[in-house]
Design brief:
about 290 residues; mainly alpha; rod-shaped
Length: about 290
């Protein structure tokens, strides 16, 4: 596989994995945020149950406007809260518990309204106590539902936090693996290029021994190595041919130089003989005269 293809494929995989992990991370964070909101709302509902129980007990002991008005105010506040957080409870089990909580909450408020009505009308204490007992039973049922809902939500939070932590660990391991892969790939390419550099230096010193640049990368590097080895082989052949031609030319020049030296020596000897002959001829002429 070519390096360009490898890099393109690696970039695509890294991009897809990164986008996927980011998407999953944001989803888990969003889910956790919803769970935290639900947990806060459930805790607030449970707290309101106890506060309304105190207000109800106070109204039975001292039936006046203050606890009644506070009960109504707390009821309206809790009703708004239940309406706001209702879309958060989408799971089958938690939705059933939430609906039961709303139902108990409404029934409890209706019972308190009956208590107020009977107290204001001066009904018997037996009826009022019976209504109060029903309010207590409804409160216990409501608190039980909210506690179960809280435990269920805590389990969801724990599971989501575990998944988020696991995702971070996997992402960290993946980042380390990718970093090591690029590091070792860079080291492998660097070794091949360093070997090629040494081969070029050796060629510059007219050493055409076999190249040591070998690789198992199976990409452009091995193509470059093979091309380099072919170049070395051709250079070696050309250098050998050039050496042969230089040797032949040197031999030819040496032979011609030797021949010229012989010819030069012959000409010098001949010139010397001519000089001697001229000298002898001159001496003969002198004697004759």
């Amino acid at each position: 596989m070519r390096i360009r293809t490898k890099l393109g494929l690696s970039s695509t995989i890294i991009t897809v994995v990164t986008v996927t992990f980011i998407g999953v991370t944001f989803y888990l964070i969003y889910t956790l945020n919803q769970f935290y909101q639900k947990q806060q709302s459930v805790e607030k509902i449970t707290e309101d149950y106890f506060q309304m129980a105190l207000l109800g007990g106070e109204y039975l002991t001292h039936p006046n406007e203050r606890p009644k008005v506070q009960w109504i105010s707390k009821y309206e506040e809790q009703a708004r809260l239940l309406d706001e957080v209702a879309p958060l409870f989408v799971g089958p089990e938690e939705r059933e518990l939430f609906d039961d909580t709303r139902k108990v909450f409404a029934e409890r408020n209706a019972l308190f309204a009956e208590v107020v009505k009977n107290i204001e009308q001066g009904s018997s204490k037996v009826i009022i106590e019976e209504l109060n007992n029903q309010i207590t039973i409804k409160a216990q049922a409501g608190v039980s539902d909210t506690l179960r809902l809280s435990n269920l939500n805590r389990a969801y939070i724990t599971d989501s936090e575990y998944k988020l932590g696991l995702l971070v660990v996997v992402l960290g391991i993946l980042a380390v693996v990718i970093s090591l892969s690029f590091y070792f790939a860079g080291v492998a390419i660097g070794k091949v290029l360093h070997t090629l550099e040494e081969d070029f230096t050796r060629i510059a010193s007219l050493d055409f021994s076999t190249s040591t640049a070998t690789t198992s990368l199976g990409d452009e590097i091995i193509t470059l190595t093979r091309a380099f080895e072919i170049m070395v082989a051709k250079l070696k052949g050309s250098y050998v041919t050039l050496e042969q031609k230089v040797a032949e030319r040197t031999k030819e020049l040496t032979e011609r130089s030797t021949e010229l030296e012989r010819l030069n020596k012959f000409m010098i000897d001949r010139e010397l003989k001519m000089i001697e002959l001229k000298k002898e001829n001159k001496e003969l002429k002198t004697r004759v005269v």
